[in-house]
Design a protein that fits this description.
- By secondary structure, the protein is of the alpha/beta class.
- The protein has 11 helices and 5 strands.
- A 5-stranded parallel β-sheet has the order 2-1-3-4-5.
- Strand 3 (53-59), helix 3 (65-77) and strand 4 (78-84) form a beta-alpha-beta unit.
């Protein structure tokens, strides 16, 4: 009898929100449990089985020398490695340190800075090892996560949209809030959230990172023409996905 594929879930520097998205699958996770073997998932169980693993889901960014070595070991044990969430795919909110002097922050925050061992930058998993797929979001969408797991278990490409949040607004019949004067990152942000914020008259914050061929330069030009201050635009670019290449380049352009 063929053994079920082995799944492992790993945590690096993060808030655990993306792992909670997997736990929140509830009924769907119970169905999956009959088709996969959850071999390593400390968030939900002490049970542990050594690799190799058929699929590893990795949450969190690389921020310490120890983690930079640990992710290499995870990669060696994994047939497929999928990163989940903004921390794993773009350094996360902690990547704001990449635009400042990390040692200055350490001196301010910690009573004994000499005990802190950290890298200068917070970086995505893909900056250190080969990644088979990146699932964006802060946090990720549970239906997209189930789609990715199912896809890799059946050796096919995940069906995840790469268009912008604006398409999701159209699908749910939400009027464009930028037309009404509210700044929004929807035109340059990848879909995945269902356009929740615009549905409540709030601009998109860019939780799912840059959309395919995101024209951040043009959006910046339009918003500043409407009165947005340069420093406010930089602040918009530097949030959950501050180290995503498209957002990082755009924010640095206005420094």
């Amino acid at each position: 009898m063929t053994a079920n594929p082995k799944l492992a879930v790993w945590k690096f520097a993060s808030c655990d929100g993306c792992q909670l998205s997997l736990i929140n699958c509830e009924d769907e996770l119970l169905k999956l449990a009959g088709k996969i073997q959850i071999s390593n998932f400390p968030e939900v169980s002490r049970a542990f089985e050594p690799g190799p693993y058929d699929l590893s889901l990795v949450e969190g960014s690389i921020t310490t020398p120890q983690d930079a070595e640990r992710i290499k070991e995870v990669r060696k044990q994994s047939k497929y490695l999928v990163t989940i969430g903004a921390c794993a795919t773009a350094g996360g909110i902690q990547a704001l340190r990449n635009f400042a002097d990390v040692n200055e922050y350490i001196d301010i925050v910690y009573a004994n800075p000499s005990y802190i061992s950290t890298l200068e930058n917070s970086t995505a998993i893909a900056d250190h090892v080969k990644v088979d797929f990146e699932l964006r979001g802060c946090p990720i969408d549970k239906q997209q996560l189930l789609e990715v797991v199912n896809a890799f278990l059946h050796n096919r490409k995940p069906n995840i949209p790469h268009y912008s949040v604006c398409i999701e607004c159209k699908k749910r019949g939400t009027p464009c809030i930028m037309v009404m004067g509210t700044p929004c990152l929807g035109p340059v942000t990848q879909a995945g959230c269902g356009a929740i914020c615009p549905a409540y008259n709030r601009g998109c914050y860019g939780c799912f990172g840059p959309a395919e061929t995101a024209n951040t330069e043009h959006l910046a030009e339009w918003l500043m023409h409407k009165g947005m201050l340069k420093e406010n635009w930089v602040r918009l670019m530097r949030s959950f996905n501050a180290d995503a290449p498209e957002f990082k380049k755009e924010s640095k352009r206005h420094e």
